[in-house]
Amino acid sequence: PRRMINLKYFFKGILCAKEFDSPAVALGLSFLAIGALLKNLEFTLQESIFSTFLIYALPGSLVMAESVLIGVSLLNLFFAVWLVNARLYPMTVSLMPLLMHKSQPRWKYYLSCHFVAVSSWLIIKSKYKFVEKKFRIDFWIGIGTATWLIAIFSTILGYFLANFINRDMMIALAIINPIYFTCTMIGAMKSFQLVVSIILGATLGPLFYLISPDWCILIGGFIAGTFAFIIGEKNVS
What we know:
Blueprint: H1 7-16, H2 23-40, H3 45-55, H4 58-70, H5 74-85, H6 89-99, H7 106-112, H8 118-127, H9 136-160, H10 167-174, H11 176-187, H12 192-209, H13 216-236
Helix pairs in contact: 1-9, 2-4, 2-8, 2-9, 2-10, 2-11, 3-9, 4-5, 7-9, 8-9, 12-13
């Protein structure tokens, strides 16, 4: 029935994660660092698994670990992780119109929002055109499930390998996913808007760091993105 997940497309989505150029590889390596970090911060294995199970985002996991370390309240911890993961909202907005179909029930879309991450978003953006629209949500749930499970498994593996991963290795592993995303964005620079936003963002971030290290990325990205959007709107009109 259409109200259930179509297993054919669900498993097609899962298999996308195993491709050689899949972002899931970079995701897994980054969550190795998360697992090792949580072990070093004296989280239990169950707590480490549960954090990735619920947060499923590298920056959110780092903020959660740091917040717990300094002893913030549960409410402040929730808002800190929520604000960090709000960066995924634009991805969700750009993605959902590609997946929406009137024949599919809403619960699938509510469920699939948990799977929005840089890695899964990159996979679906490169594959959705090859899938009939009414089955794209099933395909997307498969992709999300695969990357989510990879993150959980990598957290567990990193937890047990913590004694073999030093600080420098941990930092290197943690930034693999952001570097992969940056390289992918550069490779996709086919429009003037995107070129402007990436180059201007990369320039303004370090400049604003001199003023506010805590807010430099947000301010630089906001200004660069807004400027690129305005340029794009003027070109359209």
